[in-house]
User: What shape does this take?
Amino acid sequence: MGSRRDIARERIFAAATELIRERGLDAITADDVARSAGCSRATLYRYVGGKPAIVGGVLVRVAQAMADSIAEATAGYDGVDRVVEMILAASEVGRSLPVLIELLRHGRNEQVRAQLGSAATRSAALSTAGLEPGDDQAADVIIRIVWSLIDNPVGDDATERQLVEWLVRPAFARWAGVSHIDSAAIQPVTTEPVDPPVAQ
Assistant: This one.
């Protein structure tokens, strides 16, 4: 059942998620969330905090909702393969969540940036990619690629996979303990049809 405080917090975050999805981040206030959750402003501030804390809590819950799908997609993979599959899965699941799309549109928003750069977000990115904890640079690369693919999809699945492979394999060779990556074996990304070779 959870404590009364936990139940109230989840009701507030659920109301905030729906309002952000319906109206957009800029159009809502903490008072709007309190009204929608059926509580007073004082209760909202006591249990959750102001709008920055609300945005952070919504993002954390979105990430938790994505976790199972990402874990399933990366099962059985390791090394660079797991990083690739994690990025592709996170991007696909993220695009299915309208509230996440709306929040990522506000990447310059201080609350959104703070949550995306938080220790919890970095730790989750590294863990699901099968990388060692504490590597902020690797976490930043993963988060920014996923963010970019959710906000600006490449096109079809094959083209997206090709792009991620091209970006990730050379960059993550050292993180995965791979001594050499044959970059020539990675097909370049192209949106133009390539004519077949003429038989001699």
User: Anything to note?
Assistant: The chain has ten helices and no strands.
